[in-house]
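Schema walk-through. Below, the input block comes first and the output block second. Nothing else is stored per chain. Lengths vary across the set, and this one has 255 residues.
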Amino acid sequence: MRAILITGGGSGIGRATAQLFAARGWRIGLADIDAEGMAATAALLPVGAATYVMDVRDRAAWAAMLAGFATGGGLDVLFNNAGIAAGGPLAAMTGEAVDRVIGINLTAMIDGARLAWPYLKAVPGSCLLNTASAAGIYGSPGLATYAATKCAVRGLTEALDAEWAPDGIRVRALMPGFIDTPLLDATLAGSNRSARDGVVAAGLEFTPVEQVAEAAWAAVHGDRLLWPVGPTARRLAFAARWFPGRLRKRLRAGR
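--- output ---
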């Protein structure tokens, strides 16, 4: 039985991906700081899941979790998915908020990849799957720190795809547009609005988490490196490639 370990498994993309992979016969591991949400995800799966309550910034917790899960039957896929949303003007963010975004969205991703390497190398056809974002295609105003981390996750994915190829490890990144998950409950810096309010006000669409889960399945089994998911991500990827000047002008104008 193939096995996937999912960080941020207590809700949203992590939960939908766990449900899809479990329905297709995979052994599931879930990690999240939210014990209640993670238990709710495990209860939705046909045979439950191994669960690990942890803060992804805790390197010792990473090491213990990976060793424990791999002992149960190896590690075919690490889904490096945990992340937080943060928006608003950069100048309105505190240093602590910046550190938290970078710590969870980037440093923890690097630590997870680094510590998972020996377990992935031991399993033929293994995969490291990272959750980046459409913000990793082109940074948007009001998302400076978040976009910086997601652009970095894209760079990490591209670098490790080449670095780990001799080890037989495939590395992929999902780059979804806006997903209506608890991440969007975050309040924008310098504002009383939530990130969800900002998406609605801009007239942008939400991509269903089930669509992202299907993209995760395709990424694990396919050969493409970067996977834009949803209309916003695909439009942004197209514009960034073919009309970068026009995209820059539109973002600078706030439209």
